[in-house]
Structure formats: C-alpha cells, structure tokens
Amino acid sequence: MIKLKFIFNSILFIGIFLFQLNLNAQTNPLEIKIDVNEELGLMNPIWAWWGYDEPNYTYMKDGKKLLSEISSLSPVPVFVRTHSLLVTGEETHALKWGSTNAYTEDKNGKAIYDWTIVDKIFDTYIERGMKPMAQIGFMPEALSSKPTPYRHYWKPGAAYEDIYTGWAYPPNDYKKWAELVFQWVKHSIDRYGKEEVESWYWELWNEPNIGYWQGTTEEYIKLYDYTADAVKRALPTAKIGGPEVTGPAWEKSEEFLRTFLNHVKSGKNYVTNKIGSPLDFITFHAKGSPKVVDGFVQMDMGTQLRDISKGFEIIASYPEFKNLPIIIGESDPEGCAACSEADYPYNAYRNGTMYASYTAASFSRKYELADHYGVNLLGAVTWGFEFENQPWYAGFRDMATNGVDKPVLNVFRMFGMMGGKRIKVNQENLSYNYLQVRDHSVRGKNPDINALASKKEHSISVLVWNYHDKNDLNMPSASIKIMIENIPSEKIVLRHYRIDQEFSNSYSAWKHMGSPQNPTENQIENLEKAGQLQLYSSPEWKQIKDGQTNIEMGLPRQAVSLITLEW
C-alpha cells in the first residue's frame, strides 16, 4: 500500500510539474525585439507586382474588379505581367491560354498588325494607374517555324507538356519578328506617350529553359538580340530585360542563365555584329514544391528560397550586372496557378490562411536574401490573379474567387500599409532566420514566428506571422510579446489588423454558410465583407515611456497580424 501511495504521489507530482511547464510555456511569450533606430535600408515595394497566364481575363468582369482592388491597396503603381500578348486568335481564352491576334499576314505574306485587344488589356491597367511589365511573346501563328498544331486545349489533370504547341517555337523569320516588336513599341508610344512607355519594363518570353521555348538556348539568345534591338530602335530609353528562366538552382537553368549573361556581356550580337546586347534588368523565376504528407499539405518554402538565393548568387558574380534591377518574374509556392485543388490535392493551401502566412514569411526572406548578396531586388511577381466562371473556392492559385477576395490578398493590403525604411528585427530568440528557412524550410517542432518591420516619418509597422510548412490548424496559438524601442513620440495610436480563421477570411465564412456553389446575393455581399482586411481590435491610444512599448498577443497557427503605431 505504501509503495502504491508513493507511485501515485510520484505520478501526481510529475503531472503537476508537466502542467506547470506547459503553463510557463504559455505564459512566457516569445519576445520579438525591434529597435526603431536600426535601419536596414528602403523597403522597396517588391510585392507590388502581379502576373497571370490568361490575358483576356484582364478586361472581364471579375478581372477588372480584382485589378481595381489590387491597384487601390498599393501606394505605388502596380506592375502587371501576362502571357500570350502576341498569340494568334480572336480573343480565344481558356485555362493557360489567351490570344490577341496582334499579328497576321495576308495571302502574300505581308504583315497585318491589329492592336485592338492588346490595347484593351493595357488600357485596363493604365486606367487604374497600373503599368505593364510587357512580356514580348508568344509566337504568332504566321511567324511560327512549326505552326501546326497551334492552339492547345489543356485542362487540369492533363499532361503539362500538352500546352507546348506552335506558339512556343522560334520564328521562321527573325526580321519579321523584329519588325513586329518595333511596331508594337511605336504604337504604344503613339497611344500612351513616350514618358509613360519609358516607365514600363519590356521582357522577352517566359521560362525558355523549359517547354515554353521549343528552340535551343542559342536560338533564344538570337531572338533576344533581335528583340532588344527592335525595342531600342523604337525607343532608345525603353527598358528591356530577360531571360525569365525558372529554377536557377537547377544545374541546366544555371547554365542557361550564365550563357545568356555571358552573351549579353561579351558575345557577338546577332543583329549589330558588335560585342554585347542591351540589358536593363534581369529576370528569373522561383517556385516552392508542396505535397500531401499524412493527410496534411506540407509546403516547401526552402525550395523557393534556394532558387531565389541561387539567382542572386549568379547575378552577384558578375560585377557588370550586380547593380542591375532584378525582377523575380514569378515567385510562388509552386508552379501551376491553373491547377485546381480537385486535381492536385497539395494545392489545398490556396483558399485559406496558409497561403497568407506563407506569403508574409517568404516576402520577408526575399528582402533578407537580397541584402545578403548585395543585389538590387526591384520586384517579385505573384503569379496569381483570378479565373473567370469557375466553381467557388476551387483551389486555383488566385487572389479572388468569383469576385470575392481570398485571405492571401489581405497580406498585400498589409504590405501596402508599410513602407519607408525597413528596420531590424532581433532574431536571437526566434526559431528560424532567413538562412535556416532557405536551407531547411520549416519542418521542425517549432513554427516560424517572426516579423518584418518598417518605419515612415510618423509611423511604425510590424508584420508578424505564425507559419509552419505543415498545415495543421489544430496547434495552439503562440503567445507573442513585441518589444519596440526608440519610438520618437510620447503618444501613439495603435491599430491591429489580423488574418486568421475569424478575421479577414472569406473562405471560413463560405464554409460556415455550408460551402454554397450558388450563393445568394446576400451571401455574396457577406463574403465580400469577410474578404476585406479587418481590425482585430479597436484602435487604441497609448502613452510611450522612455521611447518603449510592449504589445502582447496570441497568434494562431498560419495567422498574420499587422501592428501599426502612428503619431
């Protein structure tokens, strides 16, 4: 009996001890320390760039609505990149397909230029204060060296290689191609004015190191020389760049990028016979690689960051190019925006808060990697727009579904409220820094809880996330204490915005409605309200003592908060 009592008391003691440990873990918050005086440099709006495959969605009902919202969330002009601006077809469109019919030929082979649809697309941007990142591609049917078959009819679930038809081939006449480019730039100047077109970025093709280009590396370089020469002949001050390779961390992609840069630096130009080619900015793509593990979506941010890191490393190795602007032409958690959740279960992250927390965490690391390599990161294009006439919350990589914003768009609203100068976040007590996430992703027991901070003349902003590669929302909330020093005011107004399962989340609201595929007008109105960025609590005036303040909060898994201090 004495032994049993001893065992019972021992178990009770251990239980109380473990309970107290757990209680201490909950009551001792994770500290995020920020010194307002530790400036890192300008917080360039690298997030204010979007792109998509289907150009004709631009001027459709939900496309126009989303572009208006994207424009309104940004304090600077948003750049938009889209495929297929030179593809043959009378506005034919589908998933991963679009057309403008900009170039055809008569029976004698004489060029016919028709800019009606291209103008329709660019007008939609310009009217909203946005700017084109004008992608020169793809090959018109009359110029394709292998025009048959020309159009693809790909659908989710089909082989991705099915899309690489006649539009992906080199031209049958490089001089005709160059004249097409020349006429396009000249037309743009006539329509929008020289000063406006000077502010655009013209770039050639998309991912020429894989199936999007059915020619050789040397043929792409030849096409670049003809294209760059045509752009500069039309407008010497225009900005032209490339090569939009994907996956710089892949050996063959690195080889393609270096071959291109070597040619631009010291190769013989196909058009001028002189050494070198014009290059005003450099582009490449970076993607993650999610999968389903034990019933949960498991992201792979590390793969995306390693692509970015390698791209920066390659560019930084060229003294001639190190200071050129870099645009990550597509920067996403994976590769196929038009691949729905139904056909690709690992894309289940897209509707809810996981896409939001991934976006917050990954963009912060893009800034840090650019600092690490000392390169000039100008933009990182989010390849996610909207898909017309698709089921509600079908799990495409988009910012909105049927005109209703998804949680991820609210991260960009948060970015839009930041700016000025980035300030340092002390990461000594945090589980992951940018190099650890790059090298190992977020696979350990602890989540990635971290912050991105900035300051303007009369405000400080702190973006905080609770991210993990495993999408398990049943994990307990994190207790966080944000400690800010050297605030240059004695009184501030604090605002706290939140994206989680309750706030700024149309997907949760839709599920609470029973996931209707034919929502009523009242339900759609409620979904639209739920899709907007929401305050977590009422604005609060706070007294600041000795330039310091502490902000404590609980942050659920895959949630994002923005704290703003204004005076």
Automatic annotation (TrEMBL):
InterPro entries: GH, GH39_cat, Glyco_hydro_39, Glycosyl_Hydrolase_39. The keyword Endoplasmic reticulum does not apply. Transmembrane segments: none annotated. Residues 32-530 form the Glycosyl hydrolases family 39 N-terminal catalytic domain. Keywords: Glycosidase, Hydrolase. Belongs to the glycosyl hydrolase 39 family. This is Beta-xylosidase. It comes from Mariniflexile soesokkakense.
